[in-house]
Amino acid sequence: MNALEYRKKENVKLDISLHNESRTARAFRTKKDEKRYWFLLISLIALGLLFSYGLLVYNNPVPIDSPSFIPVVERRIGAVVAMLIAAVCHSLSTVAFQSITNNRIITPSLLGFESLYSAIHTSTMFLFGASAMVSFSGIGPFFLQVSLMVLMSLLLYGWLLSGKYGNLQLVLLVGIIIGTGLNTVSVFMRKLLAPSEFDLLQTRLIGSINNADAEYFPIVIPMVTAVALLLFVFSKKLNILSLGKDVSITFGVKYQSNIIYALVLVAVLMSISTAVVGPLTFFGFLVAILSYQAAPTYDHRYIFPMALAIGFFVLTAAYFFMYHVINLQAVSVFIELFGGILFLIVILRKRSL
């Protein structure tokens, strides 16, 4: 009888523990985490807007009451819009890519977008000269670059992810091989260029907001907005896909088709960003790692806004301090430097990929 009563008491304790208020299926484990998330998100958005305002009006050589003040601000607005486009593309694509690969170290640049971008511009300079390189701008060349990068990704996914033995690791491996091959060809062609041509080419190959052309914005902004909304709507399935193939299939998710769908959205974002501002290899990794620390949740409906806010804040703050405080213009170099250092720190701490 005593043993029976003891078992009943243990069952009651177990039932209480299972229905404890701390055990919940909500996005955040505790109310404290949720409050911290919203505080950080609002603070980062406010700081990003503050630095954006500083970039627009601070240190403006034209007096505020001058008729030329507004045109100067309008030119600066183009740079802020380019920062927002880069932040959206890199933050959302990197978080989504790391979720579907179930790896928080690798980035979409492994698929060879930046190598293809470099190869397109290097071959243009090598084959047609500096005059063709200068005129290689506008809507036509922009669509050509984006189309080639998206087409390469579609061929890669359609070939390697279809069939019985298709898997994501094979896609990454082939992407690395293609990227290495394109980089090798690009380096060979650059060594044969004249010094003046090489200098002109380098300005295109280093990612910079100055590379952005406001002529692209009426086309780029709707495209980026549409893809970002599609990724946000896809958030619930990303939550499941991040658990791995076996768990996704168990939950009834069509793993293969959803992976291809997510990769296509990632490819479009990365292609647009690379074509607009140039290669930014470690920026997305930097933003993604910081967003995971700032958003203690598995739910991509909350991770995506945090990643976007951090990405915009990092770009606006970096450009403001570099241009107006330190008086240096190599902003992307420093962002890539800090991103690369953070990448090495994560690798050394995890001791694996």
Automatic annotation (TrEMBL):
<feature type="transmembrane region" description="Helical">
    <location>
        <begin position="142"/>
        <end position="161"/>
    </location>
</feature>
<keyword id="KW-1003">Cell membrane</keyword>
<dbReference type="GO" id="GO:0022857">
    <property type="term" value="F:transmembrane transporter activity"/>
</dbReference>
<feature type="transmembrane region" description="Helical">
    <location>
        <begin position="328"/>
        <end position="348"/>
    </location>
</feature>
<protein>
    <submittedName>
        <fullName>Iron ABC transporter permease</fullName>
    </submittedName>
</protein>
<keyword id="KW-0410">Iron transport</keyword>
<dbReference type="InterPro" id="IPR000522">
    <property type="entry name" value="ABC_transptr_permease_BtuC"/>
</dbReference>
<dbReference type="GO" id="GO:0005886">
    <property type="term" value="C:plasma membrane"/>
</dbReference>
<comment type="similarity">
    <text>Belongs to the binding-protein-dependent transport system permease family. FecCD subfamily.</text>
</comment>
<feature type="transmembrane region" description="Helical">
    <location>
        <begin position="77"/>
        <end position="96"/>
    </location>
</feature>
<keyword id="KW-0472">Membrane</keyword>
<feature type="transmembrane region" description="Helical">
    <location>
        <begin position="255"/>
        <end position="272"/>
    </location>
</feature>
<keyword id="KW-0406">Ion transport</keyword>
<feature type="transmembrane region" description="Helical">
    <location>
        <begin position="302"/>
        <end position="322"/>
    </location>
</feature>
<feature type="transmembrane region" description="Helical">
    <location>
        <begin position="37"/>
        <end position="57"/>
    </location>
</feature>
<feature type="transmembrane region" description="Helical">
    <location>
        <begin position="116"/>
        <end position="136"/>
    </location>
</feature>
<dbReference type="Pfam" id="PF01032">
    <property type="entry name" value="FecCD"/>
</dbReference>
<keyword id="KW-0813">Transport</keyword>
<dbReference type="InterPro" id="IPR037294">
    <property type="entry name" value="ABC_BtuC-like"/>
</dbReference>
<keyword id="KW-0408">Iron</keyword>
<keyword id="KW-0812">Transmembrane</keyword>
<feature type="transmembrane region" description="Helical">
    <location>
        <begin position="216"/>
        <end position="234"/>
    </location>
</feature>
<dbReference type="GO" id="GO:0033214">
    <property type="term" value="P:siderophore-iron import into cell"/>
</dbReference>
<keyword id="KW-1133">Transmembrane helix</keyword>
<feature type="transmembrane region" description="Helical">
    <location>
        <begin position="168"/>
        <end position="189"/>
    </location>
</feature>
